Amino acid sequence: MAISAKLLGEDEYVVVSTRTHWKALIFPVFVLLVVAGAGGFLAAIVPTGSMQTPARIAILAVGVVVLVTFAAKPFLNWFFSTYTLTNRRLITRHGILTRTGRDIPLMRINDVSYEHGLMDRILRCGTLHIESAGERGQVILPDVPHVEHVHLQMSDLLFGGPEGKPGDGILDDEQPPTHMRRRAEPEPDTETLFSSDDK
Hints:
Largest sheet: 4 strands, antiparallel
CATH architecture: Roll
Radius of gyration: 26 Å
Low-confidence stretches: 171-185, 192-196
Mean pLDDT: 81
CATH topology: PH-domain like
C-alpha cells in the first residue's frame, strides 16, 4: 500500500499511507451477495428441457456483467487508490488502467481541516480538506480512515510539533513562510540560574 521507496526523494520518508475507508466496499459486497444468491436461485428453478442450458448461460452472463460493474470495478478503484503523506509532500494516486496522481508539496499547503458526520464518527473516518497555494486551490480527500490522526500528523508537519520547531515540511536550509514561523522562546539567563557564589 505504501508508495515505492524509489519514488521518494533524498531524506524523504512516509508518515501516513492509506486507502479510503473500507466502507467503500459495503455496497460492492452487498451486490456480490445478492447477485450470487439470486443467480443461484434462478439457475436452480429453470425448468428442464432444451432451453435450460441457454437460460442458465444467460443468467450467468447477466450476473457477471452486474458483478463487474457494481462490485469488481468499485473494489479495484478502492484497491488502487492511495493517499500518502511524507515529510515533504502529499501524494494521491487513483485509477485502474489509467493511473492519475497529484503531488502537493507541504510548503504550498496553507490550511488543513476535516469533517465527519455521525456515521463517519462511528466508522472512524472523515473528509480531509486541504487548502493549497497551487492553481487548483482546494483538495478534498473523502473517506480518510482515522481522519483525526491524519489531520494531527499533517498539522505537525506543517506547523511544527509541541517543541515549537518548524515542521518537517521545511527543509533545513529553507526559511519557512511567515505564516509558518514560530516565535523563538527566550533562552534562560544562565547568570540568574547559576551565580558566582555557587562555585
